[in-house]
């Protein structure tokens, strides 16, 4: 497959052209927090050079709050803009996050039910995944089958080689799009440089802990007192789950009166007690221990069973954001220790 | 500080050995530079994991709340390592009947401030710090392609810069030399108060709009121990659940009101926030208000009656029409 | 693309106070638009919603052949159920469904079925009984054991009286404590089960009720020789989406909403034992 090149000097132009057909999202910094925002005339692209965004890009397809429908005094229900005016393109998403889209897609578009809100946005989306020349010390994509230059979930894979991005199509959609973009082809030297950066980045990551049997390790751990120990310092806030690119749990609520209002869905977290609190007062996960177990099990056991993959892409956001430095890598190591 | 750690470990080892406690809550080294992590020590062999330095920003009094309080086997007291602010939070727990004085052994440590990693990011930019070293009043941080020498003061939590109680007011054992108290310090929000109400509101809107409603602030707060927080109540439900600015704003305002006369401005909320919302001014301003109105400072006296639980005929009542 | 979150409008046709303490009401719910009508199987559930209050899941208590209306019996416990209790006949509410799986009535064919219920967890069991009676020739013995704390808490009392008269259905009603007007059995469900359950040979058991009843009845069934593969139950959990997306009602890797709510005890054995 041909590999192309996007000159950085022409990046703005490139994105402007792209935004004629797509709603283009890029990493942006606002009040100290980096996240993906729709590109505007004043968008600064400097955040591309920085490390991964503080907030994951999942909210582009799965917003923290989303109106399922509105209703009026005649109980007429209407969905807002179920049709997007333009498909979404995301430029500069990191490989871990690009992979997270494929995991979320398996949950939201399962065999039994398709979540239309997710699907409408994701099905035509174009994902430009930017390889990580400088992975952080908290990155552990290589533990969970990823890598700083992985292409899973990407339509076009990018490598920052200094004055330009190498752009390699890695899906049919990407292939179709890239040929319409009138880009010049990368030279041998460019490719060599790309490869070198890739090798360097991979060597920067710490040696992965072997977790191919983690699902089985967890199967054996259900009743272990270890959970209490692991959960002990956890504050049961939702920083880890809200900043996780693959956490998909949500609540559904009505806002408004009986005559006018909306039904919305909002991110929710298994870390909260109320998540499973039943109206009659019972709660299958009454303490932090059960909730911690649920989070770890969901990611490293249940999803392996249901979609055949870990529900973790190793982005490290939960590690960075945890107010008590509860490091999921340490949890994994502890789990492995119990079994061995 | 190294000296403190040595003494601290010896103290804790002794407590465990003499079976005065069978659990000590403290700090150990975190997995990230400039981060510590709470640790629960039950065996002498683990005592050497204990640390105490400017990275120990969590308020460990959190772990004494009724629902979290670890049950020790023979109901021996729990040992807990506390800075000035943590110590004040514990006093507040005692005042509010959340814990009895005899249920804890307070191991006080002197604190000259803890690091706010967000302030560090402002100084070094969006770069990953991989190593750090404290040299007196300086702190040297190092990453892949940079090395910066910073004044420690520049990256300390705002709350610490205003702290007048660097040593816990109540303790059983004090480790190290108390930090000299700077009497000139006081809760200060002058910068914000000098702004017009509109500008001030704008400031808070800007801060609060970063809130993602993860409740890290509330859950890190030693005084947020309610069995069910008002914001979670569903029958009736007082608040929308989305990060809508008005709902979020009211949440933070009501939480501030609920900690009036209780908050010790430890800054744990601000340091816990994953999106860097600066909540500290709300608590600091409230502390100041309580001091002005009721002459009360939270967390100093275990026998005190907190102002919100008391009535005095001299209380200001200009709000009654 | 079908939007699985959109409720259809349905009309409250009839409301019946079901229990003597008035905490249980049965609602007959009719489709407002013929195009929305759906087929379902006994054991499935729907999300009923009142705009402005929200949604909650309820098992369908009627059989698919009862075309006039779907039946739901609702216990007043939370916001949505309280709002539902305030409804009046003729009002329009929202409904999503049918959701979840159902009792494996095809597997039961040619065999005997013992249905064990307790308290107000009898709703989908009613659906099952009516279904089995409609297809009576497909099944051998049908035994129903139904217990409640007192007579006034038994659901569908008129129908129970009708069923008692039938000779193709063995109905055993029981209450926990003796009361003057009660001439039938007194005793707990596990004890009654021990006495009246049919031979486990080619038999299936379905059990729904409060956890304590289930806890003490399962060993009885097992003693009688009912294998776990042929003992079914229907579970309840806090649910929101009802379609396996919102992530809260799981037991292990199974979602009660979309993989259940009906499970055999053999299936449940495979799952972690969450409290």
Question: Can you describe this structure?
Answer:
The complex is a heterotrimer of chains A (340), B (321) and C (275). Chain A has eleven helices and twelve strands. By secondary structure, chain A is α+β, with helices and mostly antiparallel strands. Chain A has two domains: 4-57 and 81-204, no CATH class; 214-339, no CATH class. The longest helix of chain A has 20 residues, at 288-307. The mean pLDDT of chain B is 90. In chain B, strand 7 (138-143) and strand 8 form a beta hairpin. In chain B, strands 1, 2, 3, 4, 5 and 9 form a six-stranded mixed sheet that branches. A three-stranded antiparallel sheet of chain B has the order 6-7-8, with no helix packed on it. Chain C has two domains: 8-98, Beta Barrel (Elongation Factor Tu (Ef-tu), domain 3); 105-234, Nucleotide-binding domain of ferredoxin-NADP reductase (FNR) module (Rossmann fold, 3-Layer(aba) Sandwich), CATH 3.40.50. In chain C, 21% of the residues lie in helices and 30% in strands. In chain C, helix 5 runs parallel beside helix 6 (211-224). The model of chain C has no long low-confidence stretch (mean pLDDT 94). Chains in contact: A-B, A-C. At the A-C interface, strand 4, helix 3, strand 11, strand 12 and helix 9 of A face strand 4, helix 1 and strand 13 of C.
State the secondary-structure class of chain A. Answer: alpha+beta
Determine the mean pLDDT of chain A. Answer: 92
- CATH homologous superfamily assignment of the largest domain in chain C: Nucleotide-binding domain of ferredoxin-NADP reductase (FNR) module
Can you count the beta strands of chain C? 15
Largest interface, with counts of residues having CB < 8 Å to the other chain, equals:
A-C, 53 and 45 residues
Q: Give the radius of gyration of chain A.
A: 21 Å
Distance between the termini of chain C: 38 Å
Helix and strand arrangement:
The complex is a heterotrimer of chains A (340), B (321) and C (275).
Chain A: E1 4-7, H1 11-21, E2 23-30, E3 33-38, E4 65-71, E5 77-78, E6 88-93, H2 95-108, H3 116-122, E7 126-130, E8 156-160, E9 164-169, H4 172-180, E10 184-185, H5 188-204, H6 214-219, H7 226-231, H8 239-242, E11 250-256, E12 261-267, H9 288-307, H10 317-321, H11 328-339
Parallel strand pairs in A: 2-6, 6-7, 7-8
Antiparallel strand pairs in A: 1-9, 1-10, 2-3, 4-5, 4-12, 8-9, 11-12
Chain B: H1 2-17, E1 24-29, E2 36-41, E3 50-51, E4 78-82, H2 84-95, E5 104-108, H3 117-124, E6 131-135, E7 138-143, E8 146-151, H4 158-161, E9 173-174, H5 190-193, H6 197-208, H7 216-220, H8 245-258, H9 268-272, H10 280-294
Parallel strand pairs in B: 1-4, 4-5, 5-9
Antiparallel strand pairs in B: 1-2, 1-3, 6-7, 7-8
Chain C: E1 8-17, E2 24-31, E3 45-50, E4 54-59, E5 70-75, H1 79-85, E6 92-99, H2 105-108, E7 112-118, H3 123-134, E8 142-148, H4 157-165, E9 170-175, E10 185-186, H5 189-196, E11 203-208, H6 211-224, E12 231-234, E13 250-251, E14 254-255, E15 262-264, H7 265-269
Parallel strand pairs in C: 7-8, 7-11, 8-9, 9-10, 11-12
Antiparallel strand pairs in C: 1-2, 1-6, 2-5, 3-4, 3-6, 12-15, 13-14
């Amino acid at each position: 497959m041909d590999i192309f090149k996007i000159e950085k000097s022409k990046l703005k132009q490139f994105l402007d052209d792209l935004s004629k057909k797509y709603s283009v999202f890029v990493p942006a910094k606002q009040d100290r927090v980096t996240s993906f925002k729709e590109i505007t005339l004043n968008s600064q692209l400097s955040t591309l050079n920085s490390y991964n965004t503080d907030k994951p890009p999942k909210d582009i397809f799965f917003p923290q709050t989303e109106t399922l429908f509105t209703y009026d005094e005649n109980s007429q229900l209407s969905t807002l803009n179920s049709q997007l005016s333009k498909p979404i393109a995301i430029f500069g998403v990191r490989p871990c996050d690009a992979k997270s889209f494929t995991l979320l897609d398996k949950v939201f578009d399962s065999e039994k039910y398709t979540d239309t809100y997710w699907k409408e946005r994701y099905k035509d989306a174009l994902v430009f995944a930017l390889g990580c020349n400088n992975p952080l010390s908290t990155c552990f994509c290589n533990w969970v089958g990823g890598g700083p230059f992985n292409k899973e979930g990407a339509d076009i894979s990018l490598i920052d080689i200094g004055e330009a991005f190498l752009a390699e199509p890695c899906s049919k959609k990407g292939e179709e799009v890239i040929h319409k973009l009138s880009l010049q082809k990368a030279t041998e030297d460019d490719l060599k440089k790309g490869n070198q950066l890739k090798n360097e980045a991979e060597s920067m990551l710490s040696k992965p802990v072997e977790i191919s049997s983690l699902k089985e390790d967890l199967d054996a751990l259900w009743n272990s007192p270890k959970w209490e120990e692991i959960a002990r310092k956890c504050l049961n806030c939702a920083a880890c789950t809200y900043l996780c690119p693959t956490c998909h749990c949500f609540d559904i609520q009505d806002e408004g009166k009986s005559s006018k209002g909306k039904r919305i869905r909002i991110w929710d977290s298994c870390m909260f007690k109320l998540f499973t609190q039943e109206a009659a007062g019972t709660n299958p996960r009454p303490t932090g221990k059960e909730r911690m177990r649920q989070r770890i099990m969901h990611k490293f056991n249940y999803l392996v069973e249901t979609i055949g993959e870990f529900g973790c892409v190793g982005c490290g956001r939960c590690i960075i954001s945890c107010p008590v430095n509860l490091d999921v890598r340490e949890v994994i190591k502890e789990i492995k220790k119990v079994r061995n | 500080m190294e000296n403190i750690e040595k003494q601290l470990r010896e103290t804790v080892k002794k407590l465990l050995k003499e079976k005065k406690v069978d659990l000590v809550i403290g700090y150990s080294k975190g997995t990230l530079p400039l981060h510590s992590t709470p640790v629960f020590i039950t065996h002498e062999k683990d005592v050497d994991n204990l640390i105490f330095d400017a990275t120990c920003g969590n308020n460990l009094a959190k772990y004494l709340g009724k629902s979290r309080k670890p049950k020790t086997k023979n109901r021996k007291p729990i040992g807990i390592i506390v800075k000035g602010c943590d110590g004040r939070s514990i006093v507040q727990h005692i005042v509010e009947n959340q814990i009895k004085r005899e249920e804890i052994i307070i191991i006080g440590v002197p604190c000259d401030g803890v690091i706010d990693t967000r302030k560090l990011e402002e100084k070094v930019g969006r770069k990953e710090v991989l190593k750090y070293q404290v040299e007196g009043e300086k702190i040297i941080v190092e990453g892949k392609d940079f090395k910066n020498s910073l004044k420690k003061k520049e990256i300390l939590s705002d709350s610490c810069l205003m702290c007048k109680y660097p040593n816990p007011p109540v303790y059983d054992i004090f480790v190290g030399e108390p930090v000299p108290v700077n009497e000139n310090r006081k809760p200060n929000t002058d910068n914000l108060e000098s702004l017009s109400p509109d500008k001030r509101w704008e400031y808070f809107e800007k801060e609060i709009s970063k809130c993602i409603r993860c409740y890290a602030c509330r859950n890190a707060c030693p005084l947020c121990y309610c069995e069910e927080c008002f914001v979670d109540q569903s029958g009736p439900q007082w608040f929308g659940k989305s990060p809508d600015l008005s709902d979020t704003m009211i949440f933070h305002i009501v939480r501030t009101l609920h900690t009036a006369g209780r908050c010790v401005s430890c800054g744990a909320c601000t340091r816990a926030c994953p999106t860097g919302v600066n909540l500290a001014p709300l608590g600091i301003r409230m502390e100041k208000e309580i001091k002005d109105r009721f002459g009360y400072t939270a967390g100093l006296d275990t026998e005190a009656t907190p102002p919100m639980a008391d009535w005095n005929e001299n209380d200001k009542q200009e709000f009654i029409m | 693309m079908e939007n699985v979150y959109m409720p259809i409008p349905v009309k409250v046709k009839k409301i019946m106070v079901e229990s003597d303490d008035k905490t249980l009401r049965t609602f007959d719910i009719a489709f407002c638009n013929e195009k929305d009508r759906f087929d379902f199987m006994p054991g499935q559930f729907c999300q009923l919603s009142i705009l402005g209050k929200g949604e909650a899941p309820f098992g369908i208590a009627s059989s698919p052949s009862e075309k006039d209306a779907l039946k739901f019996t609702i216990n007043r416990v939370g916001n949505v159920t309280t709002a539902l209790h305030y409804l009046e006949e003729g009002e329009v509410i929202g409904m999503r469904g049918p959701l979840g799986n159902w009792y494996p009535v095809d597997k039961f064919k040619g065999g005997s079925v013992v249905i064990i219920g307790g308290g107000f967890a009898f709703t989908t069991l009613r659906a099952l009984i009516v279904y089995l009676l409609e297809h009576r020739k497909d099944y051998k013995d049908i035994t129903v054991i139904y217990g409640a704390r007192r007579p006034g808490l038994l659901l569908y009392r008129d129908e129970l009286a009708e069923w008692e008269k039938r000779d193709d259905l063995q109905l055993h009603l029981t209450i926990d404590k003796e009361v003057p007007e009660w001439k039938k059995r007194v005793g707990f469900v596990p004890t009654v089960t021990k006495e009246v359950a049919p031979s486990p040979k080619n038999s299936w058991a379905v059990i729904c009720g409060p956890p304590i009843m289930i806890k003490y009845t399962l060993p009885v069934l097992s003693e009688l020789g009912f294998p776990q593969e042929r003992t079914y139950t229907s579970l309840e959990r806090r649910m929101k989406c009802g379609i396996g997306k919102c992530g809260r009602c799981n037991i292990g890797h199974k979602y009660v909403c979309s993989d259940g709510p009906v499970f055999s005890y053999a299936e449940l054995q495979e799952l972690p034992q969450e409290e």
